[in-house]
Amino acid sequence: MSIMDSLKAKAKANKKTIVLPESMDKRTFAAAEQILKEDIANLVIIGTPEEIAANGKGYDITGATIVDPFTDPNRQKYIDKFVELRSKKGVTPESAEKMMTEDYMYYACLMCKCGDADGAVSGACHSTGNTIRPALQLLKTKPGISSVSGFFLMEVPDCKFGDNGLFVFADCAVNTDLDSEKLAEIAGLSAESFRFFTGGEPKVAMLSYSSKGSAKHDDVTKVADAVKIAHERFPDIELDGELQLDAAIVAEVGELKAPDSKVAGHANTLVFPSLEAGNIGYKLVQRLAKAEAYGPVLQGLAMPVNDLSRGCFAEDIVGVVAMTAVQAQMSE
């Protein structure tokens, strides 16, 4: 069974309500048909009757709840909540109404905030910023978490490294500026994500071009300091660094370069030192090793909201909805 089949089964066992706000995109409806057929989640699709008719034609979405943001009975409740949360930032009932009806992602996040949904998935035809911004403004981050990060769940075929080819790669999608504190925080969140999504025990490697002081540079010091912070904040997580990639996942190299490390050679959760490295790294593995790359999955938000690639297929949306539903189970 693939990891995605396992995640779909997990989602089905404790169904959650996930909002899809992109009714202007036909891929939403193709995905919705499959999600409902496989009984992965309860679905809410936000859109006007005209949008649903135009883009949903030919797809069986029987069982989905359709919410028209202009006539929804809960509309005033969401406007009031929006103003309550953002009045200090100048949001008025009029501006709240305008934002909710012009950008359905705000509507989706308000549904989550008011307890009418468990999570949301967007991004097929919107930027990452347009997906994350409403979530940060309305849902906020988890207590004690300073920022949102993104990870990919990687499944590499015929691979003896990691957890039989399973890895979490982070941050590959969100943070352009990573200091030691953020790297340590990402390490803790990624370990939690690996444990919950795979059922395995995380072994976290903080990656660098240096292993245990083999090179000297501010970039190396940043990672080494992150390891110290992570050990203080998350003493129960098996975590080490700084480690080069081969020292992190290849046992023979790990024994040579970091002989006293319990993580070196066995890492399954890889924290990259920069967004550049993470983004390039996951795409290399995806293309050259023909790995499945599920994500980016956002971590650190108070409620699960996830982004899609604008080049995604309907099947990708199905997978991210399953992962979002599983994330919603994490917070129970």
Short synopsis of the structure:
The chain is of the alpha/beta class. Helix content is 46%, strand content 16%. It starts with a helix and ends with a helix.
- Note the main sheet: 6 strands, mixed
Average pLDDT, to the nearest integer?
93
- The total tally of domains equals 2
Number of helices: 13
Q: Quickly give the structural class.
A: alpha/beta
Fold topology:
Blueprint lengths: L2 H11 L3 E4 L5 H13 L3 E5 L2 H7 L9 E3 L7 H12 L6 H10 L1 H10 L5 E4 L5 H11 L10 E7 L10 E5 L9 H19 L4 E5 L10 H16 L4 E6 L1 H5 L1 H7 L11 E3 L3 H14 L3 E8 L5 E3 L6 H17 L2
Parallel strand pairs: 1-2, 1-4, 2-3, 4-11, 6-9, 7-8, 7-9
Antiparallel strand pairs: 5-6, 5-10
Helix pairs in contact: 1-13, 2-13, 4-5, 5-6, 6-7, 8-9
Task: Write up what this structure looks like.
- The model has no long low-confidence stretch (mean pLDDT 93).
- The protein contains 13 helices and eleven strands.
- The protein is an alpha/beta fold and 332 residues long.
- Strand 2, helix 3 and strand 3 (65-67) form a beta-alpha-beta unit.
- The strands form two sheets. It has a six-stranded mixed beta sheet with strand order 8-7-9-6-5-10, with helices on both faces.
- The protein has two domains: 3-140 and 302-330, Rossmann fold (3-Layer(aba) Sandwich); 149-292, Rossmann fold (3-Layer(aba) Sandwich), CATH 3.40.50.10750.
- Helix 6 (104-113) packs parallel to helix 7.
